[in-house]
Design brief:
This protein is mainly α. Helices cover about 60% and strands about 0% of the residues. The protein has two domains: about 1-55, no CATH class; about 60-125, no CATH class. Helix 3 (about 65-75) packs across helix 4 (about 90-105).
Length: about 130
């Protein structure tokens, strides 16, 4: 493995990592560099940890760390979440992140957010 601080290695590694989150990608490791393959393998591992194994089917909606953080934020703010389009494996992951947010729930955060939204002319439907 080359030095991760090498800009070319890092670029290939990150390209492999990001492409691993596309479950429709037909991947042949013989076509890519060591850096790309290393990044792809880590990215695919993270993808499957959040969305389930690709061999079990590709879900309608793909979870990423960003969407999981949004579910945690919803828990912190005490907001409801929509599970439509997620499979059972993903819902279990979402529940863990949401529960983590609920454990940090502060009722005042919801009021502060509501005040900010109202100030900017945004209404929240119940």
């Amino acid at each position: 493995m080359e030095n991760i601080f090498n800009p070319i290695y890092r670029r290939d590694y990150l390209a492999g990592y990001s492409s691993a989150f596309n479950p429709h990608l037909e991947y042949n490791q013989d076509l890519y560099s060591e850096a790309y393959n290393s990044g792809f393998n880590l990215g695919r591992l993270e993808y499957e940890n959040m969305n389930g194994h690709i061999t079990d089917g590709i879900p309608l909606r793909i979870l990423t760390r960003k969407t999981l953080e949004e579910f945690m934020l919803a828990g912190i703010l005490g907001m409801r979440v929509d599970f439509h389009g997620y499979n059972a494996y993903q819902i279990e992951i979402i529940n863990r992140w949401y529960q983590s947010g609920i454990e940090k729930y502060e009722p005042d955060f919801g009021f502060y957010l509501q005040d900010i939204l109202e100030y900017n002319g945004i209404e929240i439907a119940d």
